[in-house]
């Protein structure tokens, strides 16, 4: 089975309705994962640790889609914590 690389990252946003980080120097890279299920588990754990801060958001970026230049219009799935 082919592995599909996923990146989990997050940080404090300027506005909870937008995806602009308050301070890029403080964006946390949770990790790189070989499949969606392990990335989702890491996203969920990181999100639950920051549940008291409404401005914190974590995301899963499907890096394999960024590496595939033949597909147009693919976007990273945004999960809101």
Task: Please outline the helices and strands.
Blueprint: E1 6-12, E2 28-33, H1 36-49, E3 56-62, H2 63-67
Antiparallel strand pairs: 1-2, 1-3
Please describe what this structure looks like.
By secondary structure, the protein is an alpha+beta fold. 23% of the residues lie in helices and 25% in strands. The chain has 2 helices and 3 strands, in the order E-E-H-E-H. The protein has helices at 36-49, 63-67, and strands at residues 6-12, 28-33, 56-62. A 3-stranded antiparallel β-sheet has the order 2-1-3. The longest helix has 14 residues, at 36-49. The chain is globular. The termini are far apart. 14% of the residues are buried. The mean pLDDT is 85.
What is the multimeric organization of the chains shown?
Answer: single chain
How far is it from the N-terminal to the C-terminal residue, by CA? 30 Å
How much of the sequence is in beta strands? Answer: 15-25%
Strand order of the largest sheet: 2-1-3
Major sheet, described briefly?
3 strands, antiparallel
The general outline is: globular
**What are the low-pLDDT stretches, counting only 5+ consecutive residues below 50?**
none
Radius of gyration: 13 Å
Notable characteristics:
single chain; 81 residues; alpha+beta; 3 strands; 23% helix; globular
Summarize this structure briefly:
By secondary structure, the chain is an alpha+beta fold. It has helices at residues 36-49, 63-67; strands at residues 6-12, 28-33, 56-62. 23% of the residues lie in helices and 25% in strands.
């Amino acid at each position: 089975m082919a592995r599909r690389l996923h990146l989990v990252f997050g940080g404090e946003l300027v506005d909870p309705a937008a995806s602009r980080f308050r301070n890029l120097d403080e964006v946390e890279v949770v990790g790189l994962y070989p499949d969606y299920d392990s990335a989702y588990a890491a996203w969920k754990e990181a999100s639950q640790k920051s549940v008291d801060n409404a401005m914190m958001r974590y995301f899963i970026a499907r890096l394999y889609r960024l590496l595939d230049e033949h597909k147009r219009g693919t976007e990273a799935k945004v999960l809101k914590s």
